[in-house]
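request received
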Amino acid sequence: MADLLVFGHKSPDTDTIASAMATAYLLNNAYNLNSEAVALGEPNAETAFALKHFDLAAPRVIQKADTPEVFLVDHNEASQSVDNIADVTVAGVYDHHKINFQSAAPLWFINKPLGSVATILYGEFQQAGLDIPANLAGMLASAIISDTLLLKSPTTTPMDQPALAALAKLAGIEDYEAYGLELLKAGTDLSSRTAQDLIDGDAKTFELNGQKVRIGQVNTVDVDDVFARRAELEAAMQTELSADGYDTFILVVTNILDSDSDLLVVGDNQDKVAAAFGVELTEGRASLPGVVSRKKQVVPPLTAAFEA
Amino acid sequence: MADLLVFGHKSPDTDTIASAMATAYLLNNAYNLNSEAVALGEPNAETAFALKHFDLAAPRVIQKADTPEVFLVDHNEASQSVDNIADVTVAGVYDHHKINFQSAAPLWFINKPLGSVATILYGEFQQAGLDIPANLAGMLASAIISDTLLLKSPTTTPMDQPALAALAKLAGIEDYEAYGLELLKAGTDLSSRTAQDLIDGDAKTFELNGQKVRIGQVNTVDVDDVFARRAELEAAMQTELSADGYDTFILVVTNILDSDSDLLVVGDNQDKVAAAFGVELTEGRASLPGVVSRKKQVVPPLTAAFEA
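response:
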């Protein structure tokens, strides 16, 4: 029985799952802790592809943290964490997002503005002088590919490519571009996913000037494929909006081959969303050429527009 | 002209000054930035002793940050930072305190629960493969000695002693215990200091359940020396309380040889302070045997008592 749970954000993506697994391994093997990587949801199709490729089991899904201390990866805000986060002590954080965090005591809090938490962890393993097992290196490489869209997202930093190249080598991936395209495409098989899963599979909640804004993102190789299911998606967004008290639900539909996105917006504040990107919404839809990063290209202009 | 100011907290202590100097050196020499270490106040007697010993000038004192980006060391809370902190972007933080921080974007935020920021920085120089100049190593060694009271404070961690030993060696300090005692004693020559300087020389403001609590600390080799000036100290505390709107002013008078402290409390909430430490206050004074660390032994019980 572990005495420290390690987990990433809700609606886990590949970086969240891989970083939780790698952090638990690092804490147990370099720092003699007794931690367990868990998840706040089932792996998405992309993560499942990577886990299968590297012959690893998905972390156990928890609803509640039941250890007195926890270690967060790939998030630091309570709204994105386990529901009972206020009842446990955060002993450490590895993250690469904006910070909204309070603690009662000093802790390990390592936040770096790099493309993925996996890139940070690659450095932490090096610093600790700990070898990364091949399958874990494969998951970390997959996480970098996923978060940076194969080093093409504007969130990519000069530290990500060397980390990816080194991790791919450790993992025995001969051509990380070829593997990366396979991985990303595995995440875009949308036909088998429900509308609920598409809007929630990679969604986060943000407080923007008092408004509760839900922002989901779907990667695809054909935006029209997604908008063919528009009525169904809008209904699911509307249902969740009412059920969870969101003011606005924004779905970012991203073409990973062209590096463009289309937005679909449901709920209040449509004027603010339009103003944020300098576009007009046509029945809640707008095209955003060149936009692929929620963190870097979607949340900051929305924050500014909601505070204007 | 630097484009990134690096500074520690108000009422700077040796760790704040040394860490700002070392961080600027690290950023400029390992990361090609153009930063300048500055301070939010003049060095105290202890820091002045260390600067003189290692033949270094004190950092320039600023009232306002005038670069768009800043780098914080040894603090992360706005209440302990430069007055116009809300107008600038925090690009990075090296700290070892509890966290109360929000940002609009990801940043470098390295917080570790070690005895001093200097200990963290020793690791950062190692990680960057950058040699530490002898005089800077002397300042960092002084910072560890200061923050851990020569490794005797309960804030001391297993990482601090090896860092101190290594830094002392780099600095050419033959016997760091002997140097450390000299350094700490240099900070306790209270006769030449005004009451205002004694209460404010190492003071921080905390919001405890809505109450504004000012906590100053004075190191001495004889507690009675300080309490001989009690009337004068209480008057200064009362004046500052009224002027700055504090609800409570607590002065922690610490005997660095015996590792004990006496409290002097002015203002409201005397019952809560008494409850926090399970003592009775006699005319605002109480003895706290074994208490030397504001961070670890004073603020946490006060926080609990104010929230009870």
